[in-house]
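Render this sequence as a predicted structure.
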Amino acid sequence: MGAATRLREDLQAARSHDPAARGSFENFFVYSGLHAIWIHRLTHHMWQHPSLRFPARLLSQFARFATGIEIHPGATVGRRFFIDHGMGVVIGETSQIGDDVMIYHGVTLGGRSLAKVKRHPTIGDRVTIGSGAKVLGPITIGAGSAIGANAVVVKDAPEDSILTGIPARWRHRDAARETAPAVDPAEYIDPAMWI
C-alpha cells in the first residue's frame, strides 16, 4: 500500500471518529495524534534495521516532545489507527494494535515485567480505549471491544467485550443498550425556552 493511500485512510479515520473534525486539510496540520502515528510509521520501519535503532529512538523522542504521545518504534500499529486528544498516551515496545482502533488521551499500553519478552498488550481490530485507561501486560483484548475511561485492564478479554473498573471486569456488549440514547432530550430541554 502506498504512502498516499495510507495518508488518505488516516485522514478519513480522523473524520469518521471525531465529530469536531472540519476537513482533511485542517486535520493534516493540527491533529497531533495523526502526526505521532505518521512519525511512528517511519520509526517502526527504521527499527526493523538494527543499525537504525538509535536514530529511530531519537526521532520517536522528538515526536514525544512535539505531540505528547510516546509510541515506541518497536510497537506494531494497524491501519486507520486514530488517537484523539492524544496527550499523555504511552504505547510500549511489544504492543500490537489492530486495524480501526481508537484511543483517547492518557492511555497506557504498558508492561508488567522487566524481562525481554512480549510484555505489552495485543489490541484487536475495532477496539476503543477510553481516556486514562491502563492496559498492562502481555494480554489480548478481543476485536470489537471497548475499554472504559480510567479502567485498569490486566486480564484477557474476548471479542465484543466492555471492560470497566479497577481491576477491569468484562461483560459482553449489548447492542440494544448501546444504541439507546443515554438521556432523553426531553429531560434536559427547558420548556421555558419555547415561550
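Summary. The mean pLDDT is 86. The helical segments are 3-17, 24-30, 32-47, 53-67, 175-179, 185-188.
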